[in-house]
Amino acid sequence: MLAVLSPGQGAQKPGFLAPWVGLPGAEARLRWWSALSGVDLVHLGTEAGADEIKDTARTQPLLVAAALLAAEQLPMHDVAVVAGHSVGELGAAALAGALSPEAAVTLAGVRGREMAAACALEPTGMSAVLGGDAAEVLAAIEAHGLHPANRNGAGQVVAAGALDALAKLAAEPPAKARVIALQVAGAFHTPYMAPAEQALAAVAAGITPADPSRILLSNLDGSAVAHGRELLTRLVRQVTAPVRWDLCMRSLADLGVTAVLELPPAGTLAGLVKRELKANGIEIVTLNTPDDLPAARDLVARHGAAPSHEPAPQFRVVVAGAAGMFRPADGLAEGDTVSTGQLIGHVSTRQGPVEVAAHGDGLLTEWLAHHDDPVAPGQPLARIGGHPA
Q: In this protein, which residues make up the domain named Malonyl-CoA:ACP transacylase (MAT) (predicted)?
């Protein structure tokens, strides 16, 4: 099973899009997306220096556009799982078919501008806390009045909040931990970004999303999102909510992902996956220039869907939205007809039952989990295919 990952802010490098602009149609695509996002993506990706592309208002649409541009060169129909880090979630949502590329780039432009504006309201920042005991690190962050904005796994937590509080954390780091200030404009993924969340919500309300056509993991909790409207709500909420990339990687492992392909500018997420999931033996390819496309396509061919010239039935996979014990709906069996929104079971959690519903009409062709099976967020539960006669 193959997962394609879309990186977030901080991964950008000067000139990283230059090799891509020469591909047929690429520059025209970027100019169209530039008109939608309100920034010159061609200039930013080819000629702009490090300081210019560090600007949040410019960086966010640039990263989303880069991921989508590169993905157009890949056989994405063979990809089972997609995920993105922070603003990379917008790119992942488009790759999952839930948003159009135009909607994703437009939202990235709004998100970047509004988050930059929120950063200017008061002096805030972010610092990476590397190493140390995870519980002690989180306790220290809370004790200083800060927020764990990113929990990236592999011994990395990013603290965010007031600059004076970050300075105190650096002066009194948790045991066996290092605190490194990050060159960012402000405290992303914290309540300081509330004005940006409100502004993004106003624009997102005018978009009609589709249900994802492949497994799409959410930064909020690492779970797979089955419905387009829920996805849009989560994307807006993520502006002030912590990025739980650690839970996304746990879901990659739970799903049995065997290979990961990171889209440009690649390297950051691949490194986190390599350190966190090294015991899983996941094969990793980073796609940074068109020269990397043969290796990327080969990875898709070997770990994606098996190629076939025969007509293939189209299936929808229903996945768990939470961890717990799966209970199929009483009386529902393989071969039964189900309709959109029909309850097909629930996952029993400590907080109560989480309903599992069909997100398309068709036949329940196969149970992928059975009564009282333990399931993880994003784990496939049932396969629905075809259409009822």
A: 5-325
